[in-house]
Amino acid sequence: METVFLSSDIPADLRARLESAYRVVDVPDDVTSGFEAYGDPVGWLVAGNPVDAAVIAQLPNLRVISNYGVGYDSVDVPAATSAQIIVSNTPGVLDDAVAELTLGLMLALGRGIVTYDRYVRDGSWEREWPPLTHDVHRTTLGVVGMGRIGRRLAELVAPLGVEVLYHNRSRNAEIDESGVATWAEWEDMLQRSDFVSLHTPLTERTRGFFVKEDFELMKPSAYLINMARGAVVNTDDMVEALKNGTIAGAALDVFEEEPLPASHELVQLDNVILQPHNGSATEETRRAMIDLAVENLEAGLQGERPKTPVNWEDIYSA
Ligand code: 8YV
């Protein structure tokens, strides 16, 4: 039997299905060497594991890397493509879940939901009524990296009368046609938005791209939401902007270092809502994601085009 590596827990029925055709081996998600201890895989289901060129070079018979997640920044796709390894991801099935958590965070930031939960619990309410909060309806939301998730978010906030601006490197024709959001120049979007929500993939171009000057363009009353990857923002600049009042607050689902150590400076800040990389983390959505990830793995191993490949055309075109 050929070997398949799994670097995520998967539901028992899917595991049994894989085990009927492959030798299935659990490999911790931080292993980058010493693969001989686990075997010689033809397929690997990864969940944010670092799979760089050096890792790929150690696995000469690998044919498929199925990424359990839409963001595949932890996989070196060009290295996989040169080794003729199919890479797939799980787009589409998590759009609703990520967009709804983003909406929840907008409401929590604007209406002080987390702050005022603490206010009641610590007895502050027994002493005085809390300060007023801010409307979320009829505000302006700026989406950075408008794709499927951003579009779903734009649809969700529409009934609240929220105006949605977006900025991508190039305009998204489908979005422009749909009218759910309006493209804006970078400075204009940052200056006008009450919420700036990041949904861009992490690439060499977006790594560390959101810096001090960008925070300074935002309104002092505005909030940053990061649902993308921690590394797209310069964390030191963000902490500074949050501490000195350049912006009003932030809601963060992703961090440069995950899990975020409880001793991190961000944890000390009252104007930040912290989430443990939770955007897609519902029973229903994770099931849909893992179904798709396993289907992609099986298809690729059978020499078929996975439902949602990343590099199929790069390998098989020409
Ligand atoms: C994780 C995510 O992949 O889809 C993404 O890009 O960030 C998450 O959904 C999830 O933790 C599963 O590995």
Describe the protein in words.
35% of the residues lie in helices and 15% in strands. The protein contains 13 helices and 12 strands. The strands form 2 sheets. A 7-stranded parallel sheet has the order 8-7-6-9-10-11-12, with helices on both faces. Strands 2-1-3-4-5 form a 5-stranded parallel sheet. Strand 3 (41-46), helix 2 and strand 4 form a beta-alpha-beta unit. Helix 4 packs across helix 7 (148-157). The radius of gyration is 21 Å and the shape is globular. It starts with a strand and ends with a helix.
Q: How many E strands?
A: 12
Strand content: 15-25%
Provide the gyration radius in Å: 21 Å
Strand order of the largest sheet: 8-7-6-9-10-11-12
Largest sheet: 7 strands, parallel
SSE series = EHEEHEHEHHHEHEHEHEHEHEEHH
Query: Helicity, in percent?
Result: 25-40%
Based on helices, strands and strand pairing, what is the structural class? alpha/beta
Bound molecules: 2-keto-D-gluconic acid
Number of helices: 13
Give the N-terminus to C-terminus distance in angstroms: 32 Å
- Mean pLDDT over the residues: 97
Protein name: D-glycerate dehydrogenase
Organism: Leucobacter chromiisoli
GO molecular function, one term: hydroxypyruvate reductase [NAD(P)H] activity
Family: Belongs to the D-isomer specific 2-hydroxyacid dehydrogenase family.
Name a few traits of the molecule:
318 residues; alpha/beta; binds 2-keto-D-gluconic acid; glyoxylate reductase (NADPH) activity
